[in-house]
Every structure is written in structure tokens, then in C-alpha cells.
Amino acid sequence: MTATLERPVSGPRGRTTVRVGPVSVLLRWRQLLVPLIALVVLVLVSAVSIGRGDYPVAIPDVLRTLAGLGEGPQNFIVLQLRAPRVIVGLLVGLALGVAGALFQTFARNPLASPDTLGITVGASVGAVAALVLTGGSSVGALLGGFGVPLAALSGALVTGLLLFLLAWRAGVDGYRLVLVGIALWSVGSALVDWLLTNAQVYDAAAAYVWITGSLNARTWDQAVPLAIALAVLVPLSLAAGRALNVLQFGDDTARGLGLRLAGAQTAVVLLAVALTAAAVSAAGPITFVALVVPQVAVRLTGGSRPPLLASGLLGAVLVVSADLVTRTALPEALPVGIITAVIGAPYLLWLLVRGRRQFT
User: Fold this and answer.
1) Residue 306: pLDDT over 80
2) CA angle 192, 193, 197 (to 5 degrees)
3) CA 147 to chain centre
């Protein structure tokens, strides 16, 4: 049995049919090229970010050290002081990019993301409660014992469960999911404001830094659990690609094509919530990454829905690049969430204006 490559006689350019015996696969080269370029850019940006600091390290030396060939102080600076921060940012961007692509494909709405659906604000409720209620009360002691990351993880998962249950009506409709998510976001924001209003000044200051989204002081303690979680969640998300291809055409079409709609919808929502919860628990709610990146990815690849792998890699590039900007291009270091918000807020306004024009 031999494999042959042949370009289709008719159809859009940039596609190649690969046939192995009776099996044929249609390759879209843009959908392969964009992730590859994003991966190369990610490696370079990460190396530059690790190399910048009070003790500069050249990019070849950074790559050599990461490959296990470093020595002396350079090995300590790269592997212990700087690499964990960059790796956490990379993994957080990857998780948020994939989660955003899952939500937007499922809801068939470019406004659907963990930010607008209330998942990140649910994590903020848990984290702020753990920071603010660590006084003498028994509730505060309990939350403080769990720690801020675990409290944020719990808040995100509880909000995701509420989102799923409230949006469920013999299935999960994308439009209803967005409406319920906006309502949960409003409730969560009110709870965060109430907690901050009743907090001590120093507790409120720490909470404000966390809810902005920051990579400061990140270590392997955050990087390793996040990497383990994504090693499970990202392959499962990629395996859901076939179901996503069907779900984008609507519930009736999905049923007609034989898809088990309720099971597929449940799996997609749970994967997106779990990815968001893992990311937020490690670095706080870095906003707008999951909103912007999938739409950029779908335009670069020219597909019919946000591609998962390209969205994840571009999300990682955005977060690592934003962190590099905060540390090198600004007079003083800012939380990375501020930079992503500056990028994402105008994009959200553009989406809203475009949607209004389409309806009018």
C-alpha cells in the first residue's frame, strides 16, 4: 500500500488530498502553517523574555540552558528565577486560547468567552474571599487553609457548574448560555465589590493585584500542576474536534448527522470550564485572551470555526509577549492582565459595533 499526494482538480486553493489506500484526508495548508509559525514565534519570544533582566542572557545561551547544557549562575537564573514565570504565562495563554475556541464554537458566538460567561469572575470571588476573609472568623480560616489558587479553582468550577445547570434545557443552547453567563458575571462582580468594600486596606490591595491577572513571583509550584492539568485537558479538547465540526452547524444538523448532542455539549462545556479554572488558579483572571485569540486564529487559518491548536499557541504568544512588554518596555512593571485588557477592550467594542450594524 503506497501513499500518494495529489491536489484536487477543483475546489479552493491551499488544500491537498492525501490518500493512503482507500483512506483520504483533506489537508488545509494554512491550518497547518499557522500553528507552526506560532510555535516558532512562541519559542523565540519565550527565549527573549527569559534572557531579559538585570543579568542579561543571550538567546543561544537561554536555549542551551533549557536544553540542559547550562552551567553555574546562568543555569540558576534561567531555570529557577525566570523560566517558571514564562512557562506559567505560556501555559495560561495556551489554556485560555483553547477554552475560548471551545466556547465560541459551541455557542456559535464570537462574544462567548470565559470572561463574558462569568467563569473568570467566579474564580475572582473565590480568590478574593480567600484573601479578604483570612481574619479570625472560621470561614476565613477555612478559605485561607485552602490557599488562593485552590479557592480560585473552586470558584471557577462552581460557576461553571451553575452556568451549565442554568443553561440546560434538554441540551445547552448557545444563546441561552451567553445570557446565563452574563447574569453570573454580574452577580460575581457584585460579590467581588462587596468583599473588597469590607476588606482591610492591605487585604484589598493584594486582592486587586490578583484580580488584575499577574505573572509576578510565579514559580515551579504553579507551573508543574498547570502543566499536568493541560497534559490531560488539551489532548481531550483536540479529540473533541470532530464534535465541534458538527456542533457549529446547529443542534438539528448535529442530531441529523448522528451526534449524541447532550453528551457532546456536556463534554465541550466541561473541558472549557476546566481549562479556564486551571489557568485562572495559576495566574489570576488574565482577561480578553480567550475572547480575542480565537477570532484572530480563525481569520489566519481561513477555517469555518476557531481552530483549537492555533488558538492555544497564539494565546500563549499573546500572554508571553504582553508579560515581556510589562517588564521591558514600560517605566514600571504592571500586571500582564492590564496589557491584555488594553488589547482586548477595543476589540470587544469593535465586535459590538459590527454586530449592531449587521442587525440594523
Assistant:
1) yes
2) 120
3) 22
Bridge-based pairing state of the strands 15-20 and 3-6: antiparallel
Residue 294, CB-side half-sphere exposure with 13 Å CA sphere: 28
Q: How far apart are CA 300 and CA 35, in angstroms?
A: 10
**Segment (H or E) for 109:** none
Q: What is the pLDDT of residues 208-242, one digit of tens each?
A: 878 888 888 888 888 999 999 999 999 999 988 77
- Could you tell me the residue range of the domain that residue 340 belongs to? 30-38+84-359
Rounded to 10 deg, the angle between the 148-167 and 138-146 helix axes is 100
Is residue 75 included in any domain, yes or no?
Answer: no
Q: Count how many domains the chain has.
A: 1
CATH number of 314's domain? 1.10.3470.10
Q: Are 227 and 216 in contact (CB under 8 A)?
A: no
- Angle of helix 174-197 relative to helix 83-107, nearest 10 degrees? 140
Tens-digit pLDDT profile for residues 193-206? 898 888 888 778 87
263 in a domain, yes or no?
Answer: yes
Give the chain's length. 360
